[in-house]
Specification:
Helix content of chain A: 10-25%
Strand content of chain A: 35-45%
Number of domains of chain A: 2
CATH superfamily of the largest domain in chain A: Urate Oxidase
Oligomer: homotetramer
Shape of chain A: globular
Mean pLDDT of chain A: 97
Number of helices of chain A: 5
Strand order of the largest sheet of chain A: 2-3-4-5-6-7-8-11
CATH class of the largest domain in chain A: Alpha Beta
Number of strands of chain A: 11
Low-confidence stretches of chain A: none
Order of helices and strands of chain A: EEEHHHEEEEHHEEEE
Largest sheet of chain A: 8 strands, antiparallel
Distance between the termini of chain A: 28 Å
Largest interface: A-B, 99 and 99 residues
Chain lengths: 298, 298, 298, 298
């Protein structure tokens, strides 16, 4: 059977680089996990093992370290610097995708004063940035992952389809809990202050989650995405993935007790998974910004 | 800013169902993890929280259990049964995607004879099946994940691009190790024997991995995918994701010792990640078979 | 061969209970993972399967939920309440160990004001409490886990033993990073304010980490443990486990660059693991407080 | 407050060494994860940071690689070689504990013949060995972890204590599933064939699991441990930790269906945890064989 090579990409994943910046005795930290994905004229390496067009993933790793030496800055900017390098420098590489995760650190305090070089990890929330660069343009996504939020009331779920397999009772008061993963696409690649843009978008989404009297997790997701687009002109599209982390009110009636939404079991599996994209009507084309990575669906 | 809802999908993820089949005193097991994803006319639930078009994820879970009662069979067939149900039964649901992971069990032996109802988990390799059903058609993917393979020789990596950031030396003999994730698309939805098809495709890929004198991991991947397409007429496209699990020969020279590829450190991160699709030239259209799940890129 | 039953214990592990407390419209959360371990007159259940002396683990789970209904309070107090119940109520149960993990939540802010019922997970640091209760007495441990800290300077490692297998160069300036796991034993079971005691002990340990110019990770650990004992009369013993999370300065010399401790690779494995106990000389006997759980060494 | 240093230990954890052995063109693999723990005269390193008595964990890692160069053999023997080295060579080190995990690989077949240098990971079951060496003696533990087994019938749980918090109904037929972790202590350190001893002990335990009509998980555990001691004179003590991985029969009555133990939900948390030790009455003293590692209870 004659066959053809289809979509393909390769790169070095999860380069764990920590950059210490020194301002006199006062240090600051950038703690990153960088993954690079290249594509281009790579037919031969697949069909014959001819590597003449291949930038080794080991070289990609070295490049991250060398670029880190020059300073990191906002991770969107760092991803763009790396992406431009790979897309521009090698004739065989048409497109580069650079994805960065950033782990946050807070300064320790001693006697009420911030310590110049001692830190603690500040939460498990992860900030992300993705830059995709090719001859046609550049695309930048900011994002966050593992932001776990919960409302202990102000959430309902009623009026759904019922069929022969439905046992769920409508709920007019339930816990709503999720771990927010979000990515948002920027109108361009020249936001003046990526850090301020990230902080504002994150804040808008969190406020929308809190404010929304939720009739469904989809509605909460949509409100969060819309808030970011409405509040930030540079944000033109938001995609979110939010598991419904079920908290079941425990039946205490066998023990002669009522449970007016006080005692819950936090369940692991199964869980609902809600995903959607919202975009501004005047958004520029997304190009390859959302191309799948990894290539295989989950 | 006027906004529009884009791609969206929802469902119950990771329903852990175990089905015991009894043939007299002799039992057999099917141990599955089922994830369902629905899409369709779901604008209102996002914008207003109106749930009239929503099949609750709790109902989806119940449906898995009820269908399991009728027996599982091959997981491709089980995924199709569930997918057809959701896509056909609810006017608001246009498309259903059902993804099944299967964990394998082996029968324990006592005094050299197979025991009728005692089992052990047989490996961490996972068999998968995905069915996507909508009004346009049906698509079936078989697959596997976490199949860890290694060649202790017969692997090279030379002739690559060198630039200012290259330190890697060419290797004419190295360990090649990876954890294979693969999905392959079937020509249709009526394979007579899904189990035999799966076993044969898996075997073809493993043999190709072993046979190929590897000049690059891409070449090994391509050989594996091509072997399945060439050997099985029902397989029309293969997509694979293979991390390069680096094994570094330890430098023993400080201890006055040579290390002719005998002692290796198995490293965790970073790792290479190689991904590609190969398809038969006469493959029917893939339709939504490879649509991203989750929606967000990693 | 005649055999005897040795150490044994059983119980329900990882009961994930979330308790919502309502003060008018203002809610607060306690999010716990509770594990119970009982021991006593349990010979028969092992040797003959006679369950007359067994409190089912399902009942243990129910008991957690019922006790949660009465309110949680500090987790040390909650662990004691549960431990006393199991140790006192059942003739066959001589000793109960209750271990509680608490996950912290912070209130979301909207328009600069704290929201009454919307929260986010505040960090991956875990607070723990363990109560062991038997006829001889009661023992309480407070603790924390997954507190990741780092010093970007102020750490050395020199003067160590060198032998034929040593290649490590002495370091007068290195990154010191670890994930602190600590447990500390209280003098009694009646601390008036467990929350204040926990906060103060944690603060003393963090300040000691920051203050100590570290000549070894052991020294930092010892300083942290001693600070808690010195600063808090109710703390009579501290045990700590601290992995040395290696950060290796990347060799940039192949690229013509110096790296004065600016660019590091955060390595995964192997890692150093440093463990020690420090106790006050007038500490009361530890009894079964530190008995192994799980029973098997790692 | 005057304080004293208590129990303490340190070492390099999780050295991931892969050793390729070559017999002509036919290769074989040993894939290990080695953790070393040393204790001794280590007061000064804790109290003053004086490292004169410290064998760096980096040196420990190097030693693993150097010893691997000489060949691995059975992991019990490899652990003993390393343990003896550390305990004997350094005046400041009184005791060494070496713990080895081994991952198994199976040879791939091509055209029905075993391939000389291509392998696949064979299961997620882990074989372990622990050697503890000091001036008083040597102790060897063999073990296994993550051996997942299940009986689909032949398991009951009845006759247990009932109290006000009991809702569990007695079960005369249920699924029994667990992930076996076991360690067994050898009478001495000179077993002629560690591999044969391991295989036989594992087989005895698996057969006992299958044979035992289980009235409680404790009974199954005890039968497994006793079978190994009875069947193997070199095995003098067995300790096991077995989670009760609950499989709940799904209530299908809302759908007009019976469920005679056919459809189960495999739950994640909470789970029962059953632990016990069984020893031969003439077992020699265990010495430090079971000393806790890590030092902190879970």
């Amino acid at each position: 059977m004659a066959t053809s090579l289809g979509a393909n990409q390769y790169g070095k994943a999860e380069v764990r680089v920590v950059r210490v910046h020194r301002d006199g005795d006062t240090h600051s930290l950038k703690d990153l996990n960088v993954s690079i994905t290249l594509s281009g004229d790579l037919e031969a390496v697949h069909t014959t093992g001819e590597n003449a067009n291949v930038v080794p993933t080991d070289t990609q790793k070295n490049t991250v370290y060398v670029f880190a030496k020059d300073g990191i800055g906002a991770i969107e900017a760092f991803a763009l610097r790396l992406g431009r390098h790979f897309a521009a420098r090698f004739a065989s590489i048409g497109r580069a995708r650079v994805h960065v995760e950033e782990y946050s650190w807070a300064r320790l305090e001693v006697d009420g004063s911030p310590h110049p070089h001692a830190f603690r990890r500040a939460g498990n929330e992860v900030r992300t940035a993705t830059a995709v660069c090719d001859a046609e343009g550049e695309w930048v996504l900011s994002g966050l992952a593992d932001l776990v939020v919960l409302k202990s009331t102000g959430s309902e779920f009623t009026g759904f389809i019922e069929d022969a397999y439905t046992t769920l009772a409508p709920a007019t008061d339930r816990i709503l809990a999720t771990a927010v993963s979000a990515r948002w696409r920027h109108a361009g690649n020249a936001t003046e202050d990526w850090d301020a843009s990230f902080a504002a978008s994150r804040e808008l989404m969190l406020e929308a989650f809190a404010r929304t009297h939720s009739l469904s997790l989809q509605q909460s997701l949509h409100a969060m995405a819309t808030a970011a687009i409405d509040g930030r002109p540079e944000v033109v599209e938001v995609r979110m993935s939010m598991p419904n982390k079920h908290h079941f009110a425990v039946d205490l009636s066998p023990f002669g007790l009522e449970n007016p939404n006080e005692v819950f079991h936090a369940d692991d599996r199964p869980y609902g998974l809600i995903e959607a994209a919202v975009q501004a009507d005047d958004a520029p084309a997304a190009g390859p910004a959302w191309d799948p990575y990894p290539l295989l669906p989950g």
